[in-house]
Write a structure and sequence with these properties.
With 202 residues, this protein is of the alpha+beta class. The protein folds into two domains: 24-140, Immunoglobulin-like, CATH 2.60.40; 142-202, Type 1 dockerin domain. It contains four helices and nine strands; from the N terminus they run αβββββββββααα. It has helices spanning 4-24, 158-165, 172-178, 191-201; strands spanning 31-35, 37-39, 42-44, 51-55, 64-67, 78-82, 103-109, 118-124, 131-133. Strands 5-4-7-8 form a four-stranded antiparallel β-sheet, with no helix packed on it. Strands 6-1-9 form a three-stranded mixed β-sheet, with no helix packed on it. It is globular, with a radius of gyration of 22 Å.
């Protein structure tokens, strides 16, 4: 007859192994791009034969793809997930995954993409779990104040910030990027926070 302790070990071991495997198999947070898509100035919807795919120079295979219309919940928007490597220290890289700090290029191909593949945008991955709204083709902005998406606020972002405040750039993405205090509008109240971010980067 098994002793109670040994019986407990025999019963609990499969459960512990199963739990450990479940934790190990949880995917790393990826980067999600979503928004509208236009080809040649014409809007692209769920019924169009267009596939988006993402590449990084450091990996030979695609690091993400999305076929327009494949996600019913997305409707006429695209929702492109960029897979990130599970080894966060960057010592190794799989053929179909990107690393934080790498530059991703997004292309479009398909019967409704004349002369494709067509480069739509490129952006630098700043962190895991980014969710970025960008209408393609277009520029992917980074965090608040980071207009060029290079993961910091520097003097390259100064002129774009001023353009928003002067009303020269009224695009929604630029307005959000310049809204440093998250008040819902970009105005003079954001200047001090932008300057602070600029000085902290220096």
């Amino acid at each position: 007859m098994l002793r109670p302790f040994r019986l407990l070990v025999y019963c609990a071991f499969p459960l512990i192994c199963s739990f450990s495997f479940t934790i190990a198999s949880i995917p790393e947070p990826s980067v999600l791009l979503y928004g509208t898509l236009s080809i040649g100035g014409e809007p692209v919807g769920a019924g169009d034969d267009v596939r988006l795919y993402a590449m990084v120079p450091e990996a030979p295979d695609e690091v993400g793809s999305y076929l327009m219309g494949s996600n019913v919940n997305a409707g006429n928007l695209y929702a492109l997930q960029v897979r990130l490597e599970s080894l966060a220290d960057g010592t190794q890289q799989s053929n179909n995954r990107a690393l934080v700090g790498q530059t991703v290029q997004v292309f479009a191909e398909g019967n409704d993409v004349p002369g494709g593949p067509l480069l739509l945008t490129n952006f630098k991955i700043c962190e895991r779990g980014q969710v970025v709204n960008v209408d393609l083709p277009g520029t992917v902005a980074g965090s608040l104040g980071d207009f060029d998406g290079d993961c910091d606020v520097d003097f390259d972002d100064l002129n774009p910030f001023v353009d928003v405040l002067l009303g020269n750039n009224t695009t929604p993405s630029a307005q959000v990027t310049a809204d440093m205090n998250a008040s819902g509008q970009a105005n003079g109240a954001d200047i001090e926070l932008f300057v602070q971010a600029l000085l902290n980067n220096g």
